[in-house]
Recover the amino acids of this structure.
């Protein structure tokens, strides 16, 4: 693999071994020579609630605001992050490759959402996923004897998919789309070689 995946969706393969990522769809908001970071966007949690977070953080919220909190990944599980559309941006917001979505891990984003001043579309996450330098690359292109069926599937960024994580079939839909996308890429490459 010779390209960075920031700004894409990683989809756990059906045979994912790591239970923490089974049936997960991960938005990658950072990927460079130093490693990668992302958030799982399709696993809403029952607790804590947004109300719990606001109470603990002493944040006054509008009574009609009550978004779900999603399991974002296995590290920094005590921190809340916000994946959101680019109509909202703070100095601390990460926006990869000029995508129309950013990731902000800043208390100000929670305050703004609580007061109805936040982004148009967003997913609140508790925790995140992180890979050290070269780790994600090795998971994308496993070295034998590890089978390719355990590799992450890659899906081009799609705003609607990115913000539809509360739907129960998000993972299934993403697997299907990622396979279609990969198949098209293989076919396109074959025809390109035939023409040249």
């Amino acid at each position: 693999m010779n390209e960075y995946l920031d700004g894409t969706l990683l989809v756990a393969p059906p045979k994912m071994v790591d239970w923490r990522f089974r049936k997960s769809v991960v938005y990658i908001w950072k990927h460079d020579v130093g490693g990668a970071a992302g958030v799982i966007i399709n696993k809403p949690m029952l607790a804590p609630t947004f109300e719990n977070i606001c109470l603990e953080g002493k944040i006054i919220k509008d009574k009609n605001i009550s978004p779900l909190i999603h399991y974002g990944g296995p590290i920094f599980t005590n921190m809340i992050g916000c994946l959101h559309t680019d109509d909202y941006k703070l100095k601390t917001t990460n926006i990869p490759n000029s995508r129309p979505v950013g990731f902000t891990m800043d208390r100000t984003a929670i305050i703004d959402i609580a007061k109805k001043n936040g982004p148009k579309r967003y997913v609140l996450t508790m925790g995140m996923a992180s890979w050290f330098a070269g780790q994600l690359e090795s998971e994308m292109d496993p070295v034998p004897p590890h089978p390719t069926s355990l590799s992450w599937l890659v899906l081009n960024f799609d705003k609607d998919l990115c913000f539809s994580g509360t739907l129960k079939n998000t993972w299934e839909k993403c697997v299907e789309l990622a396979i279609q996308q990969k198949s098209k890429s293989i076919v396109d490459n074959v025809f390109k070689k035939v023409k040249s």
About this structure: Residues 9-195 form a domain with the VC0467-like fold (CATH 3.40.1740.10). The first helix runs from residue 50 to 56.
